[in-house]
Amino acid sequence: IGMILMKNTTGKKIWIVKNTYKKTQAIVSALEALCLEAGFVFDEENPEIIISVGGDGTLLAALHYYETQLETVRFIGVHTGHLGFYADFQEHELEQVVEAIQNEKPDEAFKYQLLKVQIHFTDGRIKTHLALNESVIKRASKTLVADVKISDFLFEKFRGDGLSVSTPTGSTAYNKSIGGAVMHPRVHAFQVTEVASLNNLVYRTLGAPMIIAEKDAVTIELENADDYLLTVDQLEYFYDQIASVTYSLDGGVISFVNGGHTGFWHRVKNSFIGEVK
Ligand code: NAD
Predict the structure, then answer these.
(1) pTM higher than 0.90 for the full model?
(2) Is there a catalytic annotation at residue 216?
(3) Which of 43, 56, 123, 227 is catalytic?
(4) How far apart are CA 126 and CA 120, in angstroms?
(5) pLDDT digits (tens, 9 = 90+) for 108-164
(6) What H or E segment, with its residue span, contains residue 128?
């Protein structure tokens, strides 16, 4: 009597994005074998799930690579070094990663808000970027001078090295290094943090990080200059003739597979505090 053993195939379309470290390759090989066994289909062009293996930088790269498909893809991260903020599975938990993918449902995915970065050029052109962590506008060597507007309200004239605008999930990254507050990702707001502002009898800025309500946009109107640097997560743009940059929290969302997620404050503690003695 013949019996056909059918593998439990979910047929989920997946793709693995990795960094170039040797250690990562060994983990990816093991993961690929488990994914094949689980019946997943490798599809680089139209994946449903993207597994990022590496660090937070790898996940940021994966996000920007699949930026136009964010409505249909979910991400899951495996970290190969220290605990990642977006990569919360460890290399010895590959079975759990596969299990989480098998059991996940698109409508139960974790969603994080993305920052919309809209650049207005002096000739009227507009270019839009999305940031998961932050976008920073800086000037190479001279003082950056800009009017800062909250929606249509002229708030201050900023002079200094630059301004960082971060999402809640980006608040633990560059934003934290420059004195910004750490925000829980469920707080629907974004944060503007100064980079080395000039404050003296003549020049005046708030001198403190600002949490902006999601209903508002922040516009930074720049002096005419051709040496601005704009970062969007790990990406750098040297644009000429920027008139202004508008930041808002309506850049859509990035979805993460719901399963095995470490709580936010646990991640913060594990990364920055360690054991409390
Ligand atoms: P990278 O890989 O050198 O990353 C720098 C560090 O930032 C890594 O330890 C990474 O784990 C951590 N990181 C990234 N996102 C984080 C987050 N949301 N919360 C907590 N830590 C986070 O650099 P990369 O691959 O080019 O990544 C770009 C990101 O690195 C940027 O978005 C920026 O936030 C961060 N960064 C931070 C500093 C700083 O703190 N002085 C400087 C440059 C870049």
Answers:
(1) yes
(2) no
(3) 56
(4) 5
(5) 999 999 999 999 999 999 999 999 999 999 997 899 999 999 999 999 999 999 999
(6) strand 126-131
